[in-house]
Amino acid sequence: MKTLYFMLLAVVSTVSIAQQSLSGQVSIINTSETVSDATIYFPQLEKGTTTDSNGQFIINNLPSGTQKIVVSVIGFETISQNITLPTTQLLTFEIIPSVIEMDEVILSTPFHKLQRDNVMKVEQEKISDLQAKGAVTLSEGITNIAGVESVTTGLSIGKPVIRGLSSNRVLVYAQGVRLENQQFGAEHGLGVNDAGIESVEVIKGPASLLYGSDALGGVLYLNPERYAASNSSKTDVNTRYFSNTEGYSTNVGFKKSADQFKFLIRASQAEHSDYETKNYSVTNTRFREQDLKAGLGYQSTNFKTDFRYNVNLSKLGIPEEIGAQSNSRTPLEPYQSLTNHILSSKSTWFFNNSSLDVNLGFIYNDRKEFEDHHHDHDADHDDEEHDEDAHEDEDHEEEAHEDEDHDDELEVEAPALHMKLKTFNYDVKYNLPTLGKFETIVGLQGMNQVNTNYGEELLIPDATTNDVGVLATSHIHFETFDVQLGARFDNRNININNSIKKQYNSINGAAGIKASLLKNTVVRLNLASGFRAPNLAELASNGTHEGTNRYEIGNIALKNEQNFQSDLALEYNNKHFEVFANGFYNHINNYIFLAPNGETIDDTPVYNYLQSDARLYGGEFGLHLHPHPLDWLHVESSFETVIGQQENKDYLPLIPANSLTNTLRVEFENTTFTKSYAFVKLKSTFIQSNISAFETTTPSYTLLSAGFGTTVSLFDNPLQISLSGTNLTDKVYINHLSRLKSEGIANMGRNISIGLGYTL
User: Fold this and answer.
1) Which of 171, 350, 587, 615 is the most buried (most CB within 10 A)?
2) Cα–Cα distance for residue pair 122/116, rounded to 1 Å
3) CA atoms in the 13 A half-sphere facing the CB of 129
């Protein structure tokens, strides 16, 4: 890769370094009124500014060629158009008032378009909005997105489920690179803290064309927070308290940007005791998490680069049964001790009407799991529980000095399971010059991954995995519709213990169209194939999967999962309301699943990995009412459904139940409270009786949530205040995707959260 960088730098040195400037003004259509604080942004350059009190702006040091510019401000329609530099023309943007939320640029798709211009439907939510709804963790927050659920083990461990597909079928991207942290296990969480993440985007359906294997079911794309505007700095402190767990989450961040260099850093910590239901607290759902994110960016006229680093340290209790009732935040055995490092770089070279993107990532995941029967001091365990609170402060001090080779008092023993996963991945894309109506991208992606065992127990063997894929995709613009086409070839090689070698190949394609059929009506039709190569656990596991009470045996003869999905989305909107209907049908050949074989090893039931063709179908349907002139009032309703079956008509496991969500939301501004909101949400989850042979029916339930928030001025700086409550009626319920369901353990009861955020 060093050679590649030197070659690219040599190419850059031959490119014209002419610096261009762009100036203009933003005003309201059909008036002479200018607009201040409007955002002028080049998404591909990641460069922008805001208008002054006269609605005027100027941006310097822009490269020559055609660039996309986005003009946005709350309360108005977002403008997106291409401009060609250099230009001496003074640009004038006339924006149109709108009660529809401001349109955002989608980063998870290759052409960085506004959602309304995207051929593929992508859901996007700001992390701040998910937090305002009372979400304790990131995995809980994403369940507020239509079509997205989470397989959970207590509160701290959750895996995304997109339209019924989860585990390695859903790919997670963080800092622009694929996240690899032992995703094969249901009790292995994301390993990412929501502090320092600006928004999340969800691609529902096969995204193998863009991301390769493991994106068969969709992609969860986490966008890191942006740098400060040029020649400015910003410091902010945020904290939230949660009544149910007597827990907190707090973070502090600082960022500063000059003309060319940018820097940011954010540190966070969270601690929670066992969550409570109406009748009991759930033993060992407690957890601790420390997180540090940092970024360094550089931007010149024809080149930009962004280095990001994230380290996440967490201790997660693994609940098994209702036991000691305690408010301690120190996890008991069994528990996981995780250290996850993400180092990434994103670089772009700009040429005349074309550009080259090079994204590199290194992910180092150190996973340790400690079990009861490995403890040398079991006789003193009850006394330790009573003394935990007294030792909490000592634990905190020791954790502050903890590193990879030094364990705190919980880790003086050897872990039962200890694996280190090291992953290097690369993503190179060349944006060809626009040719008429065609925007085209060609790319090369790959990954080298090494799994190594250090523990006394072995679940999956030592192995090396190598991926390589090539792709090409085009966006074709017509007057009333847009078309996107693409194809991709992938190869995966797996070397297990230097004795077993497996190779998997796949060719996939995608085609989509977005058209305006009638006034205010948009239709999107996407057809795509995807694939997933078997992972190490499915191929070669042979041992007890700690925390799941299963002895898993892999199947070295497993084939690629291969799917084909059709997705139809209809949208209608006017100044009073919006209606949407998204339907999908997904057929998967050689679907891999776990099933018990009736045997036991060491009193643990044995599960085998099997394959069968499967199908999933359903969709999301909703209404958003915002009657004019009551623009502050929003009434939202959405329904989600998915059905998953094997070829023999047996239902697939871990399919989320149908649900109906109704929300009443108000938003307003005045001179005292610069921005305020309030909401009431009622989510009804229906009975799940479409179950696999190894599941039980889950009853229906309804949860009530509410909250409000405001921003006030304190010492001439904004102070954000929020108060929200989830499960306000303290309903005793069990989610169908809870791994504690088999033990009859309920999900979390009433929770009140208070949030404060102050910006300097």
Assistant:
1) 171
2) 10
3) 14
Q: What is the pLDDT of residues 201-257, one digit of tens each?
A: 998 887 888 888 888 888 999 999 999 988 899 999 999 999 999 999 999 999 999
Q: How far is CA 5 from CA 236, 357, 425, in A?
A: 36, 12, 15
* Residue located via tokens 């597909």: 165
Residues 6 or more apart in contact with residue 198 via CB below 8 angstroms: 126, 127, 223, 224, 225, 226
The answer to whether residue 105 is domain-embedded is no
* H or E segment and range at residue 381: helix 381-400
Pair 73, 171 in one domain? no
Q: For all residues of the chain together, what is the average pLDDT? A: 85
Domain CATH for 14: 2.60.40.1120
Average pLDDT over residues 320-342: 91
Which secondary structure element, helix H or strand E, spans residue 395, and what is its range? helix 381-400
490 located within any domain: yes
Q: Name the phi and psi angles at 61, rounded to 5.
A: 60, 50
- Give the DSSP letter string of 439-506: EEEEEEEEEEEEEEE-SSS-SS--EEEEEEEEEEEEEEE-SSEEEEEEEEEEEEEEEETTTEEEEEEE
What is the model's pLDDT at position 535? 86
Is the pTM of the predicted complex or chain greater than 0.70? yes
Alpha-carbon distances of 435 from 68, 353, 440, 559, 690, rounded to whole Å? 15, 10, 8, 40, 50
137-141, 250-254, 637-641, 754-758: least confident range: 137-141
Most confident of 215-224, 250-259, 350-359, 376-385: 250-259
Tell me: do 132 and 92 sit in the same domain: no
Question: Alpha-carbon torsion 227, 229, 231, 235, what sign?
Answer: negative
Domain range enclosing 163:
122-226+233-274+282-400+408-759
Q: Is residue 36 domain-shared with residue 165, that is, in the same domain?
A: no
Show which of 64, 98, 132 is a domain's final residue: 98
Domain termination site, one of 41, 63, 98: 98
pLDDT of residue 81: 80
Is 116 among the domain residues? no
Q: CB–CB of 140/195 below 8 Å?
A: no
Q: What is the CATH number of the domain that holds 746?
A: 2.40.170.20
pLDDT (0 to 100) of residue 6: 41
Listed range (82-96, 511-525, 673-687, 706-720) with the worst mean pLDDT: 82-96
What pLDDT score was predicted for residue 575?
A: 80
CB-CB contact of 725 with 753 (8 Å):
yes
CB 438 within 8 A of CB 474: yes
- Asked if 83 and 196 sit in the same domain, the reply is no
pLDDT tens profile 630-678: 878 999 999 999 999 999 999 998 899 999 999 999 988 765 556 799 9
Q: Which range among 75-89, 354-368, 446-460, 519-533 shows the weakest confidence by mean pLDDT?
A: 75-89
- Segment 395-414 shows an average pLDDT of 46
Separation of alpha carbons 274 and 272, rounded Å: 7
One DSSP character per residue, 617-672 reads EEEEEEEEE--TT-TTEEEEEEEEEEEEEETTSPBPSSPPPPEEEEEEEEEE--SS
Number of domains making up the chain: 2
Looking at the structure, tell me whether residues 75 and 139 fall in a common domain: no
Phi-psi label, residue 436: left if phi above 0, alpha if psi -120 to 50, beta otherwise: left
Token digits of residue 629: 């002139």
Which residues, in sequence order, are bridge partners of residue 712?
719
Whole-angstrom CA distances from 49 to 32, 38, 486 are 22, 8, 34
Across 20-147, the runs of DSSP E, i.e. the strands, are 20-28, 39-42, 47-50, 56-62, 65-72, 79-85, 91-95, 122-126
DSSP-assigned beta bridge partners for residue 366: 339, 420
Q: Are strands 56-62 and 20-28 parallel, antiparallel or unpaired?
A: antiparallel
Phi/psi at 68 (5° precision): -85, 130
